[in-house]
Design brief:
This protein is α+β, with helices and mostly antiparallel strands. It has one domain: Alpha-Beta Plaits. About 30% of the residues lie in helices and about 30% in strands. The radius of gyration is 14 Å and the shape is globular.
Length: about 110
């Protein structure tokens, strides 16, 4: 049995990091989170190259941030073409006022 991968934030890691910031009306924050949680559990984590998804809710109710990791950019791009993934992403897009997905590379990490 393979060990599950976890979110690890290290400089110049070989993973592709997606940070998607959703702007949302406060009354839709919980619904958007539920859509993203369901997508992560039912679809994303079963796709090749998926590493992790971490969902963050702003305390003022106006933002949801998805910090996800994929083994590489190609795995992320393949997910974008998956019909089941698209269905959840399209639903999330209807709940958000705006969303900004971008792939990142971790350049610097600091600890106490």
């Amino acid at each position: 049995m393979t060990q599950p991968q976890t979110t690890t934030i290290t400089e110049q890691a070989s993973v592709a990091t997606l940070i998607n910031v959703f702007t949302v009306e406060p009354e839709h924050q919980r619904e958007l989170l539920n859509v993203l949680i369901t997508a992560s559990e039912e679809v994303m984590r079963h796709l090749p190259g998926f590493v992790s998804a971490n969902l963050h809710a702003s305390t003022d109710g106006t933002r949801v941030v998805n910090y996800a990791q994929w083994e590489n950019a190609e795995a992320f791009e393949a997910m974008l073409g998956n019909p089941a993934a698209r269905e959840h992403m399209d639903r999330a897009a209807t709940l958000a006022v705006q969303f900004e997905p971008h792939l990142y590379v971790v350049e610097s990490v600091h600890h106490q």
